[in-house]
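Appendix B, record 7
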Amino acid sequence: MGRPLAGKQTDVVVLGEDTGGGQYMRKGLSMFTQSQGMFSCPAAFVAGRCLLLAAVLSSCGLAYGQAKPTEKDKDLVKAEAHLSVDRLPAGDKCQILIRLSIQPDWHIGANPPLDETGYPTKVEWKAKQGTKLTQVKYPPGKKFTPEEGTVQLVYDGKTDIRATLDVPASAGGMNEEVEIIVHYQACNDKICKIPTTARLVAKLPVARPGDTVKPQNEPLFAPPK
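Structure tokens (predicted):
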């Protein structure tokens, strides 16, 4: 038996996630359990081949419930964001760092994954005034082999994702309302949790065009030695 997704033995869990690979868009991952046994997916196949099996189970008319991550599960990965300047520069660019702090003995999928079976961590950005998140740089992953399954590339500990913010001139003098959504799946060497998200919401002041902005958080944005 493969590494099971966390869940109670009487649950039927259906997950609909965009794996980002195109060929598996919006397919469900089904895990059906009974008192006499359990169907499960190896962690290495959570974002790949088991999704195809889910479509077959669904076509058979299998009734299901939906399991949501608990508050404790959300504590496995904490997100924070830092800017390179004190205000967003209208009509210009600045840097942003998104730091993920992952609990010991847990990891999340690297981006890009080693192959199509991995569930890559991905940053989604929304901004009311049109500021764009560009040049997103995910760090290289570390090789990890679970007790059952194939080698995967993962992040653990503190992981920094870097990107550039392209601020429109039209946003000058306003507040930019932003939402950062980090999609990830937390796993240890035995199980994988259902994929979930970490969300950050903020109102960022935007300097007027031509106004001086001050650098901040220099140690975070210093070139690597």
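Remarks on this record: Residues 1-67 have pLDDT under 50 and may be disordered. The first helix runs from residue 49 to 59.
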